Request: fold
Amino acid sequence: MLGHFPVPYPDELLYSACARFASRAGYASVKSVLDELFGAPTATAVIDLPNRLGFLAAALPANSSLTADHLIDQHTLLPFFSAFQSASRVEQLRADLKGTHGPAGHMRSGLMASRNPMPGHLRFCPLCKQEDEDSFGETYWHRLHQLPGVVVCSPHRAFLENSGVSLRAGRRHLQFISAEQVTRMIPVRHVDIEDHNHRALLQIAQDAQWLLEHPSDGTSLKALHIRYLRLLLKRGVATYTGSIRVKKLLNEFSSFYSPSLLELLNCELRGRDIEKDNWLLRLVRPPKHAQHPLYHLLLIQFLGYTVEEFFQLPEEFHPFGEGPWPCLNLAAAHYRRPVIMECQLGNRLRSGKAAGRFSCECGFAYVRTGPDSLLEDRFRIGRIISFGQVWETKLELLCKDSSLSISEIGRGLGVDPLTVRRHAARLGLSLLVSDKGLKPLNCATQLKGKAVSVAWEGKRRGYRSKWVSAMKRGREITLKALRRKLPREYAWLRRNDSEWLKVHKPHPRRRNQSTTGVDWKRRDAEYAAAVRAAASRLKEALGRPVQVTRTAIGRALGAITLLRQKLHKMPLTAQVLAGVVESREQYAVRRVWWAADLCRKENVLPREWQLVMRANVYSLKEVSAVKCAVEEALNMLNSKLSRHYGRQAAS
Reply:
């Protein structure tokens, strides 16, 4: 058992408290500290998600209030990740941090495979340093300052500064280095509140601080998606059925955040087809797995909420309230009783409002628009789509009562007199009341089982006539112009009379052929050279590798459509393109060497699994080419780093 251990300061990293302990205890060996605190000389000094906390809590002095759970919630970075993980995953993470499985916590949290790595150095705020020294007599490492995506100190509205402690500096992972040893007072860089980028960074820091101060046991991924859907509906970039207006969402998001800000945070919207797959779309669509917290913070801020406000939103979204819902069949004994257990949700195409379909076991079904704002809205019918056997049986019974007028029958069934007459005719029922003075029903209603009503046929004739007349008045009119002129008629005809519409539409205009023509041979030679150069630029670009695909090359040249539609006219370009485009395996090999080069620059010798995860080639690790590349890269790193440390030892 430890004789003493410093009480952690507010928001202090456990790493920082261990560093203060090591500095005061004065151990001769860095491994002795690890053995004393965590019960294993093979342990490492982990910044974010340390493990073996169960051993540390048990080894603390008997009067210590520092339990393993308290250390996790108040002095590790787990609360930053747990709010956006499922409850079962958070429970596993807690077990990993208390136990002896070192990399497991990083794997489960998504850190290993994330494009948002931890900061490269331990960071500090100069104003926090001054405040700590005034309050406690020494400074320490704050949790908030070490979070990925947090580059400002929210309490002081100042930018964070890198210390001299690199998190990827060889054997430093065996040492606990206190902030008091390596930080110094430097000029403060204040946040400019007038700058939109600075405000966005400050909001991220404030939201991250709230997450650290309010540890979560996890959140259902479905609940996160429902909250997002509610806010996306409010913003007009989603429908009640869950469909996302992708182009509108991407345009508004790209207008809200500058490219430089997203690049700074490693959160650029990129992919093979940005309108089909990127991290933003994965967040707003039904979730398959958890995403990095920084992505969530960016989306929540874009939607106009803070994290605190976001988590106060209901976990369920019912535009028509919670079921069961009432049956509004006036002919049924259970009228207005909550017997309908399911509401089928849709949305009106024209208005975009929520549309709910309610079907009772009695056969009565109706649709109404929402969302509900008053309790009385639950008893409102928008449109009846099915009356059912119970209603029809009562209609038959009422029709036999000669003392009732059609209006009284209608009031007894909750419909108007015309509906009574139509359905009586449909069912072949005789009304005993006189039809004198009533307008006769059209033949389509009287003929039972007739598929097309006279009203429908009349609408079709009217729309056809308008369409043909508009075509005749403007002989040079185009289909696009005609659709704009008669939008309702076009929509109806396309839906109900599509074969006729195909025949009766304006002929496409013939564009005047260019008299100059295109010199395809010359263009082929130019684009062949341009494709080769673009492929080289993509491979040599700084940062994380981008796969050399036809689309990537086309985007770089501003010629995506040309390479898709006219490539058959450019055989030389097609040949060059086929030679430079990368397969998945080739791209994976290049990522392996890119990751190896980063490790070489950082003087880090990774294990095989660490190199595989950093290169993000786990799914292809058994492919022979990728496997060979990993082995060769590790051999190269082992050779170069051995020489590096040999020279250091000699000096």
Notes: The CA atoms of residues 227 and 439 lie 53 Å apart.
